[in-house]
Amino acid sequence: MTDAASAPGREARHLALNQVGANGQARIEKSAVLIVGVGGIGCAASQYLAASGVGRIVLCDFDTIDVTNLGRQILYGPVDIGNSKVGVARQRLSACNPDINIDSIAERLDDQALAERIKKVDIVLDGTDNFATRFQVNDACVAAQKTLVSGAAIRLEGQLAVFGPNYAVSPCYRCLYTEADESLESCAGNGVLGPVPGVIGSMMAIETLKICAGLEVERGVLRLYDAASSDFQRVAITKRPDCPACH
Ligand SMILES: [Zn+2]
């Protein structure tokens, strides 16, 4: 929908943007992304990616909607409790932008199924809440040489990093975490301030759109968001020579 002769559409503000323009928007519309985890982070990221016209969005989450999700998972409401997250998310995102393709996978993918899915997309977003899945998604991205946009949020803290796709030089998520860090798992036990995953999910959408549009992004850098002080910290991630995934 980038015909200059047509009336302004949803992409009008991107077309007016020097950094995106008609070329960048056309690239965005041809892009395919996989979003693993449609919780607080995935809800925010998917809404901006859908609204921005990313041509194909694949949502993957086996979970159903619980009342305790509603404080931060802003695609869902009380009427959705008990229903599949990806089913409801797909409906809402399609209503937001009927011109894009949205696929949903309401199951936990094994390594092979995940690899198949990753092969067919340009970028993978990980907004899951546990290290087992994060490591699985990371390893699949490294194997397929795909860009991984990774985000997490807990308490008043958020983090974001972009890895790959050239893992001969880029560090990976396992270079950052060699083993599960329990203090970073379970929003149920630790709590999380509602909009923190929204900030991280929105930033993941920004990095993803920049990559889709052909803009530069900084890879292998961890950005830590501290909602208590409203500050960001930037930490370079070192590629580990003994990393089990990207070495
Ligand atoms: Zn690594």
User: Helices and strands: which structural class?
Assistant: alpha/beta
Strand order of the largest sheet: 3-2-1-4-5-6-7-8
CATH class: Alpha Beta
User: What is the level-2 CATH architecture name?
Assistant: 3-Layer(aba) Sandwich
CA radius of gyration is 17 Å
Largest sheet geometry: 8 strands, mixed
| Terminus-to-terminus distance | 42 Å
The amount of helix comes to: 25-40%
Q: What is the tally of helical segments?
A: 9
The name CATH uses for the topology is Rossmann fold
Instruction: Calculate the mean pLDDT score and round it.
Output: 95
* Shape summary: globular
Report low-confidence residues grouped into runs of 5 or more: none
CATH superfamily: NAD(P)-binding Rossmann-like Domain
The oligomeric state is: single chain
Count of the domains: 1
The count of β-strands is 8
Please characterize this protein's 3D structure.
It is a single chain. This protein has 247 residues and is an alpha/beta fold. The chain has one domain: Rossmann fold. Helix content is 35%, strand content 19%. It has helices at residues 12-15, 21-29, 40-51, 85-96, 111-119, 131-144, 173-176, 187-190, 195-213; strands at 32-36, 56-60, 101-105, 123-126, 147-154, 157-163, 221-226, 231-236. An eight-stranded mixed β-sheet has the order 3-2-1-4-5-6-7-8, with helices on both faces. Helix 6 (131-144) links the parallel strand 4 and strand 5. The mean pLDDT is 95. The structure holds zinc ion.
